Amino acid sequence: MTPATQRTRPALAAADPEIAALVTAEEDLQAETLRLIPSENYVSRAVLEASGTVLQNKYSEGYPGRRYYEGQQVIDQVERVAAERAKALFGVEHANVQPYSGSPANLAVYLAFAEPGDTVMGMALPMGGHLTHGWGVSATGRWFRGVQYGVRRDTGRIDLDEVRDLALRERPKAIFCGGTAVPRTIDFAAFGEIAREAGAVLVADVAHIAGLIAGGAHPSPVPHADVVSTTTHKTLRGPRGAMLLSRAEHAKRIDRAVFPGLQGGPHNQTTAAIAVALREASQPSFSAYAHAVVANARELADHLLARGFDLVSGGTDNHLILMDLTPKDVPGKVAAKALDRAGIVVNHNAVPYDERKPFDPSGIRIGTPALTSRGLGTGHMATVAEWIDRGVNAARTGHEAALAALRAEVAELMAAHPAPGLPTA
């Protein structure tokens, strides 16, 4: 246990030194490594503090002004502030800030607009979609009839003509657009037209790109989608929670689906942290951050292409890069674990039309939200690409000494760019 731990968490260190030590170890790990997982980020100290307040102590089933417990004078204000900030930031008529995470938020959409057995449509998981978009192993694929669209083999991009044909043939109750490994701009307007023609509710799942949308670095789905589902971490740099944004006409359906349909009392400490993150996202500095995320990703993609990497769709328009390592003769999982030993944190990921198994896929998925939060810019991306190249080569040859040398270089650069929210002493 370090003196820093005792200063910042004296009660935890005294009550449970084992957990205190593990928290410190995670702080050290986050400080010393280059985090390239596109769904991860660093929150501010203010968000961390809001997440650990006495709001944790209060049950608040229901909604502001309509609770099932008394003593809500403060809690109601916290939730109203969070919802109003969400509405203002994203330009929506209604915001529900109670979902515990992204998957329950999506489940609430199904509960609001579909019945068990109804047809729903989303992007196939191996093509970049999310489990909750009707994929078979998810409850959404077991309770509903999921039909999936994908991407073209030759371009790695969505063919909207094929999406339209599928929607008109299958007539789903809901169409999901967005996903978990989509490196290109989503054409929300085109999806909106398809949904209207098919008589479907359009749900834009922007969990990955919500921060880019808030910062004006990605088009917004709000004018085109009936419901927008998002997590509050990732590019938005908030706590681990979620929101459902919608038109006023859908407000009652959404609210009833979240509570009492799926959840009990909201996590009030998380609601407060969401409110803080939304305030931060409304500042001019956040817009600069969002644009820097995209600029870094594009620059990194260019350097990776120059080093012979095969990028799905040939590059990126957002924060995310999906790499097929088949030409490098290294499985994605082997590469990801080797890079982790080098202090470069990525995740192994399936690529479209992958011939390998999902838990041992051909690709890795990387992104720039976290490194941008640390202040790294386009001038650093050549170095990051070089490190990835060296790490992948070392993974192929089993050169552990090369990985150890890389880890020292990574730690040196990370020390020069402290992460927001982490202790500095």
TrEMBL record:
Residues 13-388 form the Serine hydroxymethyltransferase-like domain. The record marks H233 as: Plays an important role in substrate specificity. One of its GO terms (molecular function) is pyridoxal phosphate binding. CDD domains: SHMT. Its EC number is 2.1.2.1. GO terms for cellular component: cytosol. (6S)-5,6,7,8-tetrahydrofolate binds at L125, G129, H130, L131, E249. It comes from the Bacteria. Signal peptide: none annotated. Its cofactor is pyridoxal 5'-phosphate. It is found in: Cytoplasm. Its main location: cytoplasm. Keywords: Amino-acid biosynthesis, Cytoplasm, One-carbon metabolism, Pyridoxal phosphate, Transferase. It catalyses: (6R)-5,10-methylene-5,6,7,8-tetrahydrofolate + glycine + H2O = (6S)-5,6,7,8-tetrahydrofolate + L-serine. GO terms for biological process: glycine biosynthetic process from serine; tetrahydrofolate interconversion. Pathway: One-carbon metabolism; tetrahydrofolate interconversion; Amino-acid biosynthesis; glycine biosynthesis; glycine from L-serine: step 1/1. The modification N6-(pyridoxal phosphate)lysine is found at K234. Catalyzes the reversible interconversion of serine and glycine with tetrahydrofolate (THF) serving as the one-carbon carrier. This reaction serves as the major source of one-carbon groups required for the biosynthesis of purines, thymidylate, methionine, and other important biomolecules. Also exhibits THF-independent aldolase activity toward beta-hydroxyamino acids, producing glycine and aldehydes, via a retro-aldol mechanism. Thus, is able to catalyze the cleavage of L-allo-threonine. HAMAP family: SHMT. Homodimer. Belongs to the SHMT family. This is Serine hydroxymethyltransferase. The lineage of its organism: Bacteria, Bacillati, Actinomycetota, Actinomycetes, Kitasatosporales.
